[in-house]
Amino acid sequence: MYNFNYHRPKDLAAAAALLQANENAKLMAGGQTLIPTLKQRLASPSDLIDLSDVDGLSGIERKGKHVQIGAMVTHAEVAASAVVRRAIPSLAELAEGIGDPAVRHRGTIGGSVANNDPAADYPAAVLALGASIFTNKREISADDFFKGLFETALEPDEIVTSVCFPVPVKAAYMKFPNPASRYALAGVFVAKRAKDVRVAVTGAGESGVFRVPAMERALDKKFAAKSIESIKVGEEGLVSDLHAQADYRAHLIGVMARRAVEAALKAT
């Protein structure tokens, strides 16, 4: 690692002030991506701002037709939450399938969403459920939040404080995981909401998470796996790497989408 100044603020205002005062500062939530990056000397921040002690970033709460999850809530806490399991069981199941126990007990939902790893699981849930990301400055809709590979709408001095998920009518997430990392080679979150259906794909896109409008239109007419059997996702814009080629990922998207629809129907 390179040398850096370490800060552990107690409140959001102090964290934001540190971020504004240090142009090359980095925020640390669970550190599951940042710490390995620092160890490999792929990043050299002047200051590291640890959010572990910041008040107001924890907790899971049902608010009417929404579930609000604090940015520093860990994957393990989401998976074990009775509130999440009652309201959005598919979100709890998604969290339960992230990484390994060590990652799930350290990694946070806010850190994952802010990092926007193209193979991470949460972005698919955020986009499919039409969640809102709250920061120290504003509320950002899921459709406006994800901008590309490891890129979001967050400003340099902006901090994610919570993620608010609308409770769907039906929803499910299915992924084909890399057996070592548990990252998604292709993961599909399908959500039937009161007025529409949304389908979001992670792990397969060169620019990160994306929606599949053709599947959404077909499922909106009839929510059944057969409705999307004939819909093929093109290879253009999909990842080809040592784990899987674009054509295979395109095939997996169809398979995972149909399995997600079947799982959503069985859960009701």
Overview of this structure, please?
By secondary structure, this protein is of the alpha+beta class. It folds into 3 domains: 5-50, Uridine Diphospho-n-acetylenolpyruvylglucosamine Reductase, domain 2 (2-Layer Sandwich); 60-166, Uridine Diphospho-n-acetylenolpyruvylglucosamine Reductase, domain 3, CATH 3.30.465.10; 170-266, Enolase-like, domain 1 (2-Layer Sandwich). It has helices at 12-21, 34-39, 75-80, 82-87, 89-96, 101-106, 109-115, 122-129, 142-145, 213-221, 246-266; strands spanning 5-7, 25-28, 47-50, 60-63, 66-70, 132-135, 139-141, 146-148, 151-152, 160-166, 170-177, 184-192, 197-202, 210-211. The strands form 4 sheets. The protein has a 5-stranded antiparallel beta sheet. Strands 11-12-13-14 form a 4-stranded antiparallel beta sheet, sandwiched between helices. The termini are far apart.
Radius of gyration, in angstroms, nearest whole number: 18 Å
Q: What's the count of strands?
A: 14
Number of helices: 11
What is the CATH architecture descriptor of the largest domain?
Answer: 2-Layer Sandwich
| CATH fold topology of the largest domain | Uridine Diphospho-n-acetylenolpyruvylglucosamine Reductase, domain 3
Secondary-structure element order, N to C: EHEHEEEHHHHHHEEHEEEEEEEHH
Strand content: 15-25%
What is the overall pLDDT average? 95
